Automatic annotation (TrEMBL):
This is 5,10-methylene tetrahydromethanopterin reductase. Keywords: Flavoprotein, FMN, Monooxygenase, Oxidoreductase. PANTHER family: ALKANESULFONATE MONOOXYGENASE, CONSERVED PROTEIN. The keyword Flavoprotein applies. Residues 10-224 form the Luciferase-like domain. One of its GO terms (molecular function) is alkanesulfonate monooxygenase activity. InterPro entries: F420_MSMEG2906, Luciferase-like_dom, Luciferase-like_sf, SsuD_RutA_monooxygenase. It holds the Pfam family Bac_luciferase. Gene3D superfamilies: Luciferase-like domain. NCBIfam families: F420_MSMEG_2906 (TIGR03856). GO terms for biological process: alkanesulfonate catabolic process.
Length: 248
């Protein structure tokens, strides 16, 4: 029996819709705790950069009605790509479609090609972080004004920036997601605790998750020892779910 939460991120690139939907249905039946898709307009993993790819929030709406148990969301949704008030409304609607299982995963964005090809201004990291903070404030203000509301909608922030992002996690997030290696994750996990103390937040109120590649599944114990409570395994197509048997 697992003593940690297990999630899976399905890469919606270089695949077709049927195997993607089959994979998230099977994961839901298998009892994973969470299912995720990234928010990209083109494939970003090694391979054909112009291969097939599917838009994140359209997929999440389908996942809301295709699944019945697992939490799910974007890991993570770039706030630059959609008006923040609109994004709040989209999240509210998808959450209601799912019976309240959506997690609103948010990030500041990084992929220059997507900004340029879709007509968004690609600013410096400092500007994108300022815009990210503004978006978080707007989303939090909009959600309670929507009718009907989506009670219990949780927010995840992805990233490990020590001066700004972790502060924003402490101030705004219910979940935090970052990457390894495990030693880096441990250090940033402790820094997040310190930021929580500075802003007057109970550190235990923020669930700690970590993204690992499928090749790192055998090293999960290192991340758990570093403070992770929720491990999210990234899978590319074709979606080999056999690792679930090893994790129980």
């Amino acid at each position: 029996m697992r003593d940690f939460k297990l999630g899976v991120q399905l890469q919606p690139e270089r695949t077709e819709l049927d195997p993607l939907r089959d994979a998230w249905r099977e994961l839901d039946r298998a009892g994973v705790d969470s299912i995720w898709v990234p928010d990209h307009f083109f494939p970003v993993s090694p391979g054909d950069p112009n291969g097939p790819n599917f838009e994140c929030w359209s997929l999440l709406a389908a996942m809301a009605v295709d699944t019945s148990r697992a939490a799910f969301g974007a890991l993570v949704s770039c706030v630059s790509y959609r008006n923040p008030d609109l994004l709040a409304d989209m999240a509210r609607t998808v959450s209601l479609l799912s019976g309240g299982r959506l997690v609103l995963g948010l990030g500041a964005g990084w992929c220059e090609r997507e900004y340029v090809e879709y007509g968004y201004s690609f600013e410096s990291p400092a500007v994108r972080l300022r815009e990210f903070e503004d978006a978080l404030v707007r989303i939090r203000a909009r959600l309670p004004r929507l009718n009907p509301a989506a009670p219990g909608l949780r927010t995840l922030i992805g990233g490990g920036g020590e001066k700004v992002t972790l502060r924003l996690v402490a101030e705004h997030a219910d979940l935090w997601n970052a990457f390894g290696p495990a030693d880096d994750y441990r250090r940033k996990n402790k820094l997040l605790d310190e930021w929580c103390e500075r802003v007057g937040r109970d550190p235990s109120a923020i669930e700690r998750s970590v993204f690992v590649d499928a090749s790192e599944v055998d090293r999960i114990e290192e991340f758990l020892a570093a403070g992770a409570e929720h491990v999210i395994v990234g899978l590319a197509a074709p979606y080999d779910l056999s690792f679930l048997d090893r994790l129980g």
